[in-house]
Description:
Elements: E1 2-4, H1 7-15, E2 20-22, E3 35-41, H2 50-63, E4 64-75, E5 80-81, E6 84-85, H3 87-94, H4 105-110, E7 162-168, E8 181-184, E9 193-196, E10 198-204, H5 210-216, E11 221-229, E12 232-239
Domain Methyltransferase type: 1-72
GO molecular function, one term: S-adenosylmethionine-dependent methyltransferase activity
GO cellular component, one term: cytoplasm
Amino acid sequence: xxxxxxxxxxxxxxxxxxxxxxxxxxxxxxxxxxxxxxxxxxxxxxxxxxxxxxxxxxxxxxxxxxxxxxxxxxxxxxxxxxxxxxxxxxxxxxxxxxxxxxxxxxxxxxxxxxxxxxxxxxxxxxxxxxxxxxxxxxxxxxxxxxxxxxxxxxxxxxxxxxxxxxxxxxxxxxxxxxxxxxxxxxxxxxxxxxxxxxxxxxxxxxxxxxxxxxxxxxxxxxxxxxxxxxxxxxxxxxxx
Length: 240
């Protein structure tokens, strides 16, 4: 059984005859202890406070039966780890200038600039762009209501833990004089370029040890494994 905030993505699951429903990760409408295993892939890094990120993991643990397992993936601040660049960084030069796309029907038509593990179509318009946040440390800090967030340059290393990531929508048109970006279309397309609007999504990228520390703060789970995988920090939890 799957769930997502995006109705469009849930509809795709329905078209493929999978069971899925729309819900919020902070409040999943399922009985406590009803799951043998749960996965949370590229979800928790979209919550903007430490409290909400912790609450999401607690909710995931609530769904597990005793002995049940959970797998969590979040985007890593360290896109170069142990002298190896992540696939995300490598694709900037390795894709020969052509955007890769997600290999699913509707999503494939809508998104061209994907990030590791993310495929949601619920793209939030950003606020103001920023130039003045230069925090290169890995000290987690809350995002204030009047804070300005830096906008990430795709396929580059992260300069801040809290940022906005540009996403490009295909098939957009120029309306009312609004500026739009030129986005490369996939390699198998007959068109070379097309105009499309740019949207920005919030991300909190995790530093080494941060996700594991959050999980260890809960007394209802045990961290079985913590590891790095292609630009993501990952943990496997067991419900006590």
